[in-house]
Structure formats: structure tokens, C-alpha cells
Give the backbone structure.
Amino acid sequence: MFENYIPVLLQIVIAGGFAVVTLIASALLGKSAKRSTIKDSAYECGMLPVGDSQPRFSVKFYIVAMLFVLFDIEVVFLYPWAIIYKDYLAAVGGGASILAVAAGFASILLVAFGYAWKKGVLDWKS
């Protein structure tokens, strides 16, 4: 029975050994490098770190992000439904009930999209 666990234990030992060797090599090789204030400063896309480190974002940014997630999830739900609908039509022949459920789902999301549009959430100029 113990022979079945040997590959798992071997993988744990190799992963742990790799982590330890990497940390030791980093500590030994990192001490040999010359240090300076420029090398120790934060590097952000080639720009000097000037200003506040945590800028304030508009609430509109978060609303647009939530809307993106909402409509992204809609696509995630509708794709498997389309595959099942295709198989359902082949098996049963009539798919009005399952089509009505998907249309109801899409109409609820369409109402939410219309509401967001009417409120001006998607207006980038303001």
C-alpha cells in the first residue's frame, strides 16, 4: 500500500528541495551584487515613481468593470445553453420552452443594459 504513495512523496520532496535551493541561491547570489539607491528604488514601466502610490479612481470605473463582468457571465451561461439547445432540438424536435427560458434570461440582461445606458454609465466623456 505504501508503494502507491511513493510518487506523491517524491514530488513533495523534489518541490520542497527546489524551493529551499532557490531561496539559498538567491540569498547567496543577491549579497554579491552592488547596491545603490537607484537599483533599490521601485521600477514601474520605466517611469520615475512620482506622486501618490494609490491614486483615486472614479466610481464609474468600478461600475463599468461590474457591467463587464455581468455581461461576460451572460456569455459564459449562453454558450453551453446553445450547445444543449442544439442537442435538444435534435432529440425532441421542438424547443420552444427552452428557447423561452433563454429569451427571458437575455431580456432581463437587456433591461439591465438599457438602464445602465440611460443612467449614462457607459458615457466616457463625463
